[in-house]
Amino acid sequence: MNIALFGTSADPPTIGHQVVLEWLVQRFDLVAVWASDNPFKGNQTPLEHRQQMLRRLVDQVQVPQIQHDPNLSDPRTLNTVNTARLRWPAAQFTLVVGSDVLPTLLHWHRVAELLRLVKILVVPRSGAPLMEATLQALRSQQAEVAIADFLGPDISSSAYRNTGNSAGLPETISTYIQEHDLYPKPTDSLELPSDLPLAGFNVGVDNVIFSVDTNHNQLLVLLAVRQTPPYVGQWALPGTLVRQGEALENAAYRILSEKIRVQNLYLEQLYTFGGPNRDPRESAESSRYLSVSYFAVVRYEEAILMSDERHLISWHPIGQIPPLAFDHAQILAYGHNRLRNKLEYSPVAFDVLPDLFTLSDLYQLYRTVLGDQFSDYSNFRARILKLGFLAATGQKVGRGAGRPASLYRFDAEAFAPLKDKPMVFI
């Protein structure tokens, strides 16, 4: 049994926490929830009230696989995990943390022991970007870390405490707060004036196009030099404004077709970036600019650039990215995290590889994207074959002076029971 351990210091719980629970329950056999007694936070509402609000939230979701267990609450997460192990001795545990909490994790009580007992699943939060240095530090401690393919609503508990606006709270939580008069009313409202004009929007699509160069063990991203204002002459992600009557996905494919020619690729919508002032063309009197971003993955060996003007469009190693226009650095970072996470639990690699491939082809793709800390080849080979979704074809291919390598085919039907299970491949 795979169990997600989700403790939250939410004060109060919001619709955002409810959405996280609903996402987790689709990917784990059981989600154990409790209100955490966080020693790093002060001036919190008494734990008893936070447990009661969380219980109401769990009751509202009405999914039996979510269990609220106040006995798991402890200032030290290691004690919580040991309590969970006593209750579910045969289970495998994944500790769910927000990206805002992640930088403190290495300072937790007996963290090395904790990381041996659980996997870590990081849920991205708006305003708390994931730092590669933090992830590398965790992995250097042999931690198994995955990034959730998910960004919940930008709703925080502090927004309610600061404004008193209950729009982000489930009704059952608002009722409980009123019944117990839990939070002082703010003296100043942070709401925007009600007479602001409605915003008009221009909708664009920006593509984060990754290529995997397994020969040189490099993950690359395609960048183009902007030819029109603003940011003329600066590197940016390939993008376009959406045409009249054009579907968003078709615009993403149009970008791909204008930039590269490739036979095998994976494409997925990433996120919508639409904060005010993200584009210098905006002003109080003009339209806002939204970016609906997509990410794509191709093999570098197969991808042919449609332009020979390499000074205007080229592949860049992910660790050597020049300054980017707009908020494209944020979009790229978000896409990179999504790609790493998708590879850890979904069959993205098989959309990129040819129909027939060797285990070495597959391993090199994973190692290139996930880094040198990824599993060694012998362990990867044993685990991937044991999972049972690679079908041997009986064919072999010779490369160099070594023995011919066996060719395999991805069996989507055999993979179906594992779909959306976290960290299948690591």
Automatic annotation (TrEMBL):
Per the record's keyword annotation, is Transferase included, yes or no? yes
**Domain AraR-like winged helix DNA-binding: residue ranges:** 345-426
Q: Which reaction equations make up its catalytic activity?
A: nicotinate beta-D-ribonucleotide + ATP + H(+) = deamido-NAD(+) + diphosphate
> Which pathway does the UniProt entry assign to this protein?
Cofactor biosynthesis; NAD(+) biosynthesis; deamido-NAD(+) from nicotinate D-ribonucleotide: step 1/1
Q: Which GO molecular function annotations are given, in alphabetical order? A: ATP binding; DNA binding; nicotinate-nucleotide adenylyltransferase activity
This protein's record includes keyword ATP-binding: yes
Record key words, sorted? ATP-binding, NAD, Nucleotide-binding, Nucleotidyltransferase, Pyridine nucleotide biosynthesis, Transferase
The parts of the chain that form a coiled coil are none
Q: Name one GO biological process term.
A: NAD+ biosynthetic process
Functionally, this protein is described as follows:
Catalyzes the reversible adenylation of nicotinate mononucleotide (NaMN) to nicotinic acid adenine dinucleotide (NaAD).
Q: Family assignment?
A: Belongs to the NadD family.
- Which protein is depicted? Probable nicotinate-nucleotide adenylyltransferase
